[in-house]
Amino acid sequence: xxxxxxxxxxxxxxxxxxxxxxxxxxxxxxxxxxxxxxxxxxxxxxxxxxxxxxxxxxxxxxxxxxxxxxxxxxxxxxxxxxxxxxxxxxxxxxxxxxxxxxxxxxxxxxxxxxxxxxxxxxxxxxxxxxxxxxxxxxxxxxxxxxxxxxxxxxxxxxxxxxxxxxxxxxxxxxxxxxxxxxxxxxxxxxxxxxxxxxxxxxxxxxxxxxxxxxxxxxxxxxxxxxxxxxxxxxxxxxxxxxxxxxxxxxxxxxxxxxxxxxxxxxxxxxxxxxxxxxxxxxxxxxxxxxxxxxxxxxxxxxxxxxxxxxxxxxxxxxxxxxxxxxxxxxxxxxxxxx
Length: 338
Ligand code: UT7
Description:
The protein has helices at 25-28, 36-43, 58-72, 97-104, 120-133, 157-160, 228-249, 267-276, 288-291, 298-308; strands at residues 8-17, 22-24, 47-49, 82-86, 110-114, 139-146, 166-175, 182-189, 197-198, 201-208, 215-221, 225-226, 259-262, 317-324, 328-335. It is α+β, with helices and mostly antiparallel strands. It has 2 domains: 8-178, Thiolase/Chalcone synthase (Peroxisomal Thiolase, Chain A, domain 1, 3-Layer(aba) Sandwich); 182-193 and 225-335, Peroxisomal Thiolase, Chain A, domain 1 (3-Layer(aba) Sandwich). Strands 1-7-6-4-5 form a 5-stranded mixed β-sheet, sandwiched between helices. The chain has a 4-stranded mixed β-sheet with strand order 8-15-14-13, with helices on both faces. Strands 2-3 form a two-stranded antiparallel sheet. Helix 7 packs parallel to helix 8. The chain starts with 7 loop residues before the first strand and ends with a strand. The structure holds oxa(dethia)-CoA.
């Protein structure tokens, strides 16, 4: 989609945070029937970070990542107009963004959660860009944070080896139209395949109110369930199509892309997508060997690392794609303007 804009939007700064506890593949091989060799060959993951300190939560990680991004932007939290927290593992079903707002002292900001699993951060960037490009807001904090460790069945080798916890944040600021850095996007959802990856809610008992006036269903969320093979096939077939459509709408050729930043789910997916687009593997930004699949956090975590490593230069074109539960997938193309 090509945007018609009143003012430009650009990413000003990034920040990230991960828990201290590092769990290596060898340790997982002591709790489920797996091996370091299998995990590395099939996924590229070597270790992941898991939240285990009682006093820490997704709010701690999201706040820390945000404070780092604010510091890198030399920005006062009171200057933030809007906070979007992309997460599927909030501390409260009503959302956690408001608590992050309070924790970082961004008292002038409106704050809300956005739930779109591993595509959440891409949707967050695009949502923020709308508020800026139509002239409503000037400074927006977008956070991708997930603590899926609390929804994992730690006896299921199909899933427990894949995920890690973390948070990444970016500050998006308004700028002149000519300096616009959020160039365009392409988004998709296929709810018919929702069952392939979910944390389903199960109704398991009925409460009868006094005098049997009402029967009320109650239940609880179950563990994360994923049909890995089907999600893999979906990712490698649909993500290249989304990227191609988005680049075509912007008249950008794949050879003019400097960086490919995909949701960090599996090294084989990153390579297969790059292959289909004829984008060289050395343009792939990846850190999933150290963090595993951190869901909504994976893209901003990898972006922050690439910025710290000074990989990304001014005016570089970065193709960012998220994919996962929903099923939801999509692309945003940005040009680095700092
Ligand atoms: O974040 C949202 C997006 N998520 C994704 O994109 C994930 C997409 N899916 C994947 O990345 C891959 O499908 C997995 C990494 C989850 C699995 O890799 P795979 O190559 O598709 O393996 P598989 O499920 O086909 O399993 C192959 C074999 C099976 O054994 P048999 O039936 O061939 O005897 C599994 O039981 O590997 C076995 N297996 C394992 N063996 C050792 C499954 N998990 C493990 C394990 N350790 N952890």
